[in-house]
Model the fold of this input.
Amino acid sequence: MPVAKAQMCRNRDDHQVCILKLKRSAKNYWEYRATVSIDGEKQRNIEVYNCRDRTLTRKGKYPIPFQPDSPGELVCQTFQKQINTYKPSRW
Done:
């Protein structure tokens, strides 16, 4: 399978959660627009995952807090900022 078509899947609570399409917001770097599937069933249309406030916003609706082990948690954990491990040399 080509890299561009590869899906990111994880097993959570006996369910397979896959990120089908993901796009980071240019204006708000903590927001991701994603399409996910759970156990092979595509979930709704594109949803906005706010990793700063830990909320999910569906089309034209109010923000909903993430549930434990939800697809939102997977999206945010996967693309979480890496800890800066850079150590300058003594030179």
Q: What stands out?
A: DSSP finds one helix and seven strands in the chain. Residues 71-78 form the longest helix (8 residues). The chain has a mean pLDDT of 78. The first strand starts at residue 8 and ends at 12.
